[in-house]
Structures are given as C-alpha cells and as structure tokens.
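Justification of resources, computational component.

The compute hours requested in this renewal are based largely on the per-chain cost of generating structure records like the one below. Each record pairs the submitted sequence with a full structure-token output. That output is archived, and it is also reused by downstream analysis tasks.
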Amino acid sequence: MSKPLPQQRMTVEEFLAWAQTQDAGRYELHDGQIIAMSPERAEHVEIKLNVTNALKAAIGRAGLPCFAYVDGLAVRIDASTTFEPDTLVVCGERVPSDAVAAANPMIVVEVLSPSTGYNDLGPKVEGYFKVASLHHYLIIDPEVRRVIHHQRATGDALETRIISSGAVRLDPPGIEIAAEDAFAGLA
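The structure output for this chain reads:
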C-alpha cells in the first residue's frame, strides 16, 4: 500500500529530504507540489538505457571529464521545482556518491510517454533552460522514432532541431551521438 503524498507545498530542500525517506516510487516537485511519476514501460526503460550508453560511449571517445547518469538524480530548477530526467550529463567533477541532485547538468534527456508528454514538451523546456549550466535538452519520441534537440543559443534564444536519423551534435561539451542509437535493438 502506498503512502499518501504530503499536501503542503515544499521547497526543493524539503522535498529532497522527504524523497530520501520514501521506500519506493519516483517523484518530482512542480511549483512546490509533489508529483508522483508513473511506472515506465519496458520500451521507455530500454530507450533511456540506450541513450545513456550512447552518451557514455561518446564521452569516452572524446576523452572528456564528463559523466552520464541514468535516472534518479534531481535537477533543481528553482526554489520550488525539481525535475528528474531520464538521463543527464555533467562535466567537470563527478556528482558526489551521496548526492540526490546534480548541481550543474550540461545535457538532460527525457523519453516521452503518454503520461509525461505535455510536461516534457512544454513546462520542462522552459524549466530546464532556467539552469545556467544546461546547454542541451533532448526529448526522445518513441512513437515516431525521433529526437527533438533544444540547444541554448545566444541570449535567451533556443535552437530546436528534429532529427530522425543521423548525428546529434552536442557542443559543448563536444560529443556526437546518432539519433538511431536511442532505438537500437527495439522492434
């Protein structure tokens, strides 16, 4: 039996402390409200693992001091919002082993699902780019097998590309993955 979610609004610090006491489940904090994340389909899990592996391989080929993490690390958006991307990359220092949040993500990845599509394509685009260190937000669309790549541009502008095949260039940090890598081994 699951525990009821707290109804009071929380700060990110309160939420992260609360989330660490939970036995199961994944949660995000949207404008102070706790949101339970739905269970994932097998395809969703395979895609996020494929993307994480592709990013790790690209980082290794480039010899960069960057680290790819699958699931579980929060990204602080502001004082009352934190998201938990499917995959993220940090460059420089490795995230401390006892951390539950990544302080300076450079790349975040979300895999679309029926329950998260609206947030991934809307509020999370604006939210993730509030994080000063973030340069790339990849949205993987399993239904049509494409990658939507939002990249920080000059000033407040974002550049968006939709890639069904071929290279996805992530500069900085200076790596490249193939859009097809996300869907490797899937029927």
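Residues 61 and 166 are 18 Å apart (CA to CA). The domain at 40-183 is CATH 3.90.1570.10 (tt1808, chain A).
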